[in-house]
């Protein structure tokens, strides 16, 4: 059974963040809050943990997960960022956006699409950012829902009911009204909105 830990959503307790990071470093899988919904994740460099998330989500192997970085500087290690992309991301991050970029050699193969692209986020949520910063690696990001099934997961109790027996830690940071991120391709100088979700699309039109 997963351990449930309450972490203050606006002022995360470092001791509890350290607990979550230790679990991730040991190859664990956690459920955590983001600025769009509760997510499931692990260290992207731990292949066993990534495979576990595939099983938990019942997701086909040809659909790579997105991941989250702590900052724009961090993003540029894992995605090729052109001038236009840099300008747009600098103005809109952290925020509820997933950016599609060409992946760099640092990205594990299991996280790349066939086209060698990646989806990367910098979430606007103190708990999430604190975990990524302390982990010093990107965090795999997928919604705490079952693939192709409609559920409204708004709190840690819902998450526990669905995934409590399959993950190692659930972080409770209160209610989150779930709304997916807006997905924007920055593979060329002309941004392309692939999915409209949370967040203003105006800057990318």
TrEMBL record:
Q: One GO MF term, please?
A: double-stranded RNA binding
Q: Which residues form the YrdC-like domain?
A: 14-199
Record's InterPro entries? DHBP_synth_RibB-like_a/b_dom (IPR017945), Sua5-like_dom (IPR006070), SUA5_domain (IPR052532)
The UniProt entry, under Pfam families, shows: Sua5_yciO_yrdC (PF01300)
**Which domain of life does this protein belong to?**
Bacteria
**What is the recorded name of this protein?**
Threonylcarbamoyl-AMP synthase
Source organism: Desulfobulbus oligotrophicus
């Amino acid at each position: 059974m997963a351990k449930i830990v309450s972490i203050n959503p606006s002022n995360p307790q470092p001791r509890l963040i350290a607990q979550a990071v230790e679990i991730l470093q040991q190859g664990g899988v956690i459920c955590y809050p983001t600025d769009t919904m509760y997510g499931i994740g692990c260290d992207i460099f731990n292949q066993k943990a990534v495979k576990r998330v595939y099983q938990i989500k019942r997701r086909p192997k040809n659909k790579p997960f997105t991941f989250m970085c702590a900052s724009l500087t961090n993003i540029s290690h894992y995605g090729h960022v052109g001038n236009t992309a840099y300008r747009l991301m600098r103005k809109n991050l952290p925020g509820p956006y997933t950016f599609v970029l060409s992946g760099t050699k640092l990205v594990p193969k299991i996280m790349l699409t066939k086209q060698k692209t990646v989806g990367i986020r910098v979430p606007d949520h103190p708990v999430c950012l604190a975990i990524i910063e302390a982990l010093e690696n990107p965090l795999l990001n997928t919604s705490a829902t079952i693939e192709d099934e409609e559920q409204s997961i708004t709190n840690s109790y819902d998450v526990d009911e669905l995934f409590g027996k399959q993950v190692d830690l659930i972080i409770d940071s209160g209610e989150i009204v779930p709304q997916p991120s807006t997905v924007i391709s920055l593979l060329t100088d002309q941004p392309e909105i692939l999915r409209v979700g949370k967040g203003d699309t105006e800057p990318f039109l």
